[in-house]
Amino acid sequence: MRVLVVEDEPNLSRQLRRNLEQAGYAVDHAPDGEEGLFLGETESYDAVVLDLGLPEIDGLEVLRRWRSAGRRMPVLVLTARDSWSDKVTGLDAGADDYLAKPFETEELVARLRALIRRASGNASAQLVAGDVTLDTRTGRVTRGGEPVKLTAQEYKLLSYLMHHKGKVVSRTELIEHIYDQDFDRDSNTIEVFITRIRKKLGADLITTIRGLGYSLDG
Ligand code: CA
Questions:
Q1: Strands 132-135 and 126-129
Q2: In which domain, by residue range, is 168 found?
Q3: Fewer Cβ close by (within 10 Å): the C or N end of the chain?
Q4: Å from CA of 51 to ligand 1 middle
Q5: Do residue 133 and residue 67 come from a single domain?
Q6: Model confidence over 92-114: pLDDT tens digits?
Q7: Which class for 103: exposed (0-12), middle (13-18), buried (19 or more C-beta within 10 A)?
């Protein structure tokens, strides 16, 4: 899962990036509204954290432009403390959730997780496929009740497929959703990750659909 953080405050940006990466997300950061607008229009994100008070183009305008361009990714807006009018305007402009500054990073991560889950149609924080479970709250994966250790990239890939269970996911889509923009993307590594995941979690968990991509069933 890949997340965009649009925030101009350097310390908060660093902290959010660190926490979101620890939670298993690929993270891109934009320090102003112009770059944020561009990334949100051109890249694929599973969720966005959008500060409203931004240089260049303010957050509300960024959000309005994304929505009128048909960009539908879940957006959580960060508002100034106690500004109820910001919250109302934000929600009206197409925000899915909001958080007032200052906030606990754990709460932001939890809300984002819920937004991503709902956007992919999953009601529970625990995703299940056959005897494999992935707990999006803890990042733990089990097979037949036994914990299985995955690398960060294997986890990102598995998490994306588990969130989209039963759908065919192309290699391009996987690349767009498990790497941040600075990552040296190589589509051959996807095949390597899939092979490793099959070794750890069972050969029949992920099906290769020739010429189309991969599908996780169960
Ligand atoms: Ca700001």
A1: antiparallel
A2: 126-216
A3: C
A4: 6
A5: no
A6: 889 999 999 999 999 999 999 99
A7: middle
Q: Convert the pLDDT of each residue in 123-171 to its tens digit.
A: 899 999 999 999 999 999 999 999 999 999 999 999 999 999 999 999 9
Contact residues for 110 (Cβ-Cβ < 8 A; gap 6+): 137
Span from the CA of 61 to the centroid of ligand 1 (angstroms): 14
> Do 150 and 57 fall within a single domain?
no
Prediction pTM value: 0.92
Q: Judge if 94 and 143 occupy the same domain.
A: no
DSSP state of 205: S
Contact 47, 72 (CB under 8 A): no
CA of 52 to the centre of ligand 1 (A): 6
pLDDT digits (tens, 9 = 90+) for 54-68: 999 999 999 999 999
At 187, list the tokens. Answer: 């589509």
Question: How does residue 184 score in pLDDT terms, banded at 50, 70 and 90?
Answer: confident
The total number of structural domains that make up the chain: 2
Q: Give backbone dihedrals phi and psi of 89, rounded to 5 degrees, phi first.
A: -60, -40
Rounded to the nearest angstrom, the distance between the alpha carbon of 68 and the centre of ligand 1 is 23
Q: Is the CB of residue 29 less than 8 Å from the CB of residue 55? A: no
18 with 98, same domain: the answer is yes
